[in-house]
Amino acid sequence: MKSRIVVLICWLVTSVSAVASGIPAHEFFLKNGMKVIIKEDHRAPTVAHMVWYRTGAIDEVNGTTGVAHVLEHMMFKGTKTLKPGEFSARVAALGGRENAFTSKDYTAYFQQIEKSRLPKVMALEADRMANLLLDKKEFEKEIKVVMEERRLRTDDQPIPLVYEALNAVAFTAHPYRHPIVGWMDDLQNMTVEDARAWYERWYAPNNAVLVVVGDVNPKETLALAEKYYGHIPRKAVGNTRPQVEPTQRGIRRVTVKAPAENPYVSLAFKAPALRDVEKDEEVYALDVLSAVLDGYDNARLNAKLVRTDRVANSAGASYSPIGRGPALFILDGVPASGVTTEQLEKRLRDEVERIAQHGVDEGELKRVKTQLIAEQIYKRDSTFGQAMEIGMMELSGLSHRDIDRIIDKLRAVTAEQVQAVAQKYFSNDNLTVATLYPLPLEEKKATPMASLRH
User: Could you tell me which residue ranges the Peptidase M16 N-terminal domain spans (predicted)?
Assistant: First the structure.
């Protein structure tokens, strides 16, 4: 199940000022084009330091899918001054923790550190922005690690296999159809030159956002940014073509066969993404609709399908409107014993139709919005959470300054708006259905067969 924690990671967020000290974030640009966002939070003597690159799986092309993620791995494999693995060892020696992640829309690197160690991690991060070494032998070892990661997290996991197939069918032209980790054949044929070309094309200060949140002074932190990042020359960063998804003209289905304990079904409806915070009113109503269905323990899907009617072992709804590409509204569930996936598919759609026909009452709407906002306030009560929030907004084409306004818009959603989007976006013409057909768990794992019907 996709949880609200995952889906709303940068959505329904409370403002940084409400979470922490009430001081707004400071925004600067270095002369080389690097954007710098600094947020003070003096509750603890720690700092979250993040560098976000505006490149991810969305920028990849057929034949080299997964290269953004592969380069993320290679960023830890040495520079002109550091040996492979030395970056992580130095951060650990400073008492900090660090990691990185690649998404469809961006790639980010972070360290959490005691505040006096900030200059040292800035120096380390700036070094690999400018001086990464891509050694063929190190690449050949690391590409095997990535392939094994794909086997463990996708090929041997039934639900990730379903979502991989779902995206591949829901999107016919847009690169969101590709998995972030890449298709296995592309990984098997990837070379160190592919990774080097990606680094040279996208890893530049003018294609990056530096986010620093914690017990810092903005002027002093900006001076550090200028010292460590300001000398790195800007590049002529390429643009990714839009690859607009064609209009869907009917229901699409995919069946995945894989060893699993239970069947599973996921319904993905094309829905609008957030592009204009002021004008895209339907986005806010769709997010509230998702919360009405699956925003808390006693939300409609769990209360009706799991607890009362017992037609599902689990049932959920999710919607993630913030991103560089198109959005999906997803309903999913595991049918109870004796219930088919077709029957559960109908029951999931019935719950949306019930809202389309009868709406939601004001009491339920108020509970849902209060719950969601309170949940986000709790989850963002950390320097790292605030840095994540700022970075994801910025790298998705929005601004961290939009956060307060988004909350205002969500608070203003009416019952009539929720009913209207339930009526508008859940037709067959917008729908892709992915179904897991469980094979015996003891069966030897082989490459799953997926039959695609458009």
Answer: 35-181
Is 224:301 a contact under the CB 8 Å cutoff?
Answer: no
Helix 341-358 with 415-424: angle, nearest 10 deg = 140
CA–CA dist 208, 129 (Å, integer) = 10
- Tokens 């005691």, residue located: 114
Q: pLDDT by residue (tens digit) across 119-138?
A: 999 999 999 999 999 999 99
Query: Cα torsion at 139, 143, 144, 148 (round to 10°)?
Result: 150
Q: At 165, list the tokens.
A: 């197939």
d(CA 266, CA 159): 10
Q: Which superfamily, per CATH, for 15-228? A: Metalloenzyme, LuxS/M16 peptidase-like (3.30.830.10)
Separation CA 50–CA 342 (nearest Å): 45
Rounded to two decimals, what is the model's pTM?
Answer: 0.91
DSSP assignment string, 187-212: HHT--HHHHHHHHHHH-SGGGEEEEE
Tell me the helix, strand and coil percentages in the chain, rounded to 5.
45, 20, 35
Distance CA 113, CA 96 (A): 5
Domain ranges of the chain: 15-228, 252-453
Q: What backbone torsions phi and psi does residue 107 show, to the nearest 5 degrees?
A: -130, 135
Judged by DSSP in three states, 17 sits in helix
